[in-house]
Amino acid sequence: MKFKKFGKALLMIAASAGVVFSVTSCVQSYSVGFLYVTGTQTATTTGDGIISGFKIDHNTGNLSPIPGLPVASGGQNPGRAVLLGGGRFLYVLNRGDCTVNPCAKPNITQFSIGGNGILASQETFFSQGNNPFRIIADAPGHYIYVLDHDSPSSAACALALGSGVNACGDITAFSVDQSTGRLSLVVNAQVTSATGQALPYFPVPANPIDMVLAAGYILTLSGTPGTGDSVFPYLYSLSSGQLSVSQNSSQPLNVSQANAIALGGSYVYILANDPLTVTPTDGTSPVTYPSQIDAYTVGTGGALQAQVGGVSPGDATQTDPMFLLLESKNKWIYVANQGNNSGTTNSQSGISGYVIDPQQHTLSPIAHSPWGSGASPQCLIEDPSFQYIYTANFGDSTVTGRRIDQNAGVLNNLLGSANRSFPLTGPATYCLVTGRTS
After folding, report:
1. Beta strands in 118-193 (DSSP E)
2. CA 169 – CA 186 distance, rounded (Å)
């Protein structure tokens, strides 16, 4: 009898252990979120682009395709996109057929995100300017802003930006219905057309490059051939989404080949392809770097205040930097470099990493940087658990994943991944993640 009782006790312990291991396994093997990638591969005879999607494994960062994806993006030439509503809605900016000018049939297509990350197309909305190419949202997810490269009216440029201005871009603003995700146009309360009608957009200086929402302002980065790049601020209203001119002119910058503006903590960073020559303190010969990153704070009226010593050289081994990522702890900056790519090769393309000096906000390279990516990376994104970084690559139609060393910022190979790359259906144009998993 004693033996039987002892045996039963062993069975109970074993069963309990099995339950514990089973629960532990379930807890550790969940998907931490979904990663979506827009791409130019045509989905239908209409020439629509596509959206691919993956589940992100919490333990390893490895990606597994979401069943039912890719789906059509709702228009041609999809580019940037935003996620809102706690990960319930995805909005894709389809630039349209850009073999003509202006691009034909651009739109913003709304998708709902269902269980398992599946996407269902909802409604389609339209920017008010020509050649839209950037889309951002405010932090609460109440408003969406689209940057149009060209305003449809030269007269409106002069009305908003001053006499003599005969060409400009514009920002189209939308409010977001928090229940349905539907977009409604926010009209310009400051400027009316020559006929007295409210403008359906907010003019910005010509040749816009990028924009960011920072310190209560929307800052538009623009480039003027022969005179250099500049930033134009609009004061942003949290309650109405309205944009108001805070200063009448653009602020000149010390670069002429800027291609990205990004926010990190209380600082704004501008990435530029302008060469930067640095003279070492040890008296050795000056070194010229192919690019630079400039740090600013946002002052009164949205004016940028350059940080003392805040101009940092880019990676000398990489070319054509095009995307900035400030990771969640604001300790490191990562740059996606497109490189001199030809087909599926990736010469001089990859990810550069920098440590942010907490006082001066100057940058110094992270040890072992740069790290490889696929050919011609188009974006950088940090996963919702802040463990992994991904690029989506145009040249070889892949997603590259890397694991963040939480102490040093080094990007290591994913655990259990032989090649850290995951195939896509066609070339990538942008990537984004959501922590929503149900």
Report:
1. 119-125, 130-137, 143-150, 168-176, 183-186
2. 17
Instruction: Determine the 3-state secondary structure of 428 from DSSP.
Output: strand
Helix (H, G, I), strand (E, B) or coil at 424: coil
- What is the reported pLDDT for 341? 55
C-alpha of 202 from chain center: 22
CB atoms within 10 A of CB 149: 22
Q: In whole angstroms, what is the distance from residue 146 CA to residue 135 CA?
A: 4
Position 64, amino acid: S
Question: In this model, does residue 191 exceed pLDDT 60?
Answer: yes
pLDDT in tens, 255-270: 999 999 999 888 999 9
Is the predicted pLDDT of residue 27 greater than 90, yes or no? no
Q: In whole angstroms, what is the distance from residue 227 CA to residue 159 CA?
A: 23
CB-CB contact of 135 with 106 (8 Å): no
Which token pair is 68?
């039912």
Amino acid at 334: Y
Start-to-end CA span in the chain (Å): 50
Number of neighbouring beta carbons within 10 Å of residue 178: 15
Structure tokens at 315: 């990676």
Please give the pLDDT value at position 16. 42
Tokens of 237: 């209203």
| Contact indicator for 73, 52 with CB cutoff of 8 Å | no
CA distance 55 to 29: 12
pLDDT at 438: 67
Q: Which residues pair with 112 in a beta bridge?
A: 89, 120
CA-CA-CA-CA torsion for 236, 237, 242, 244, nearest 10 degrees? -50
**Structure tokens of 275?**
């060469």
Residue 77 has pLDDT above 70, yes or no: yes
Tell which residue, 367, 437, 438, has the closest CA to residue 56: 437
What local confidence, expressed as pLDDT, does residue 170 receive? 98
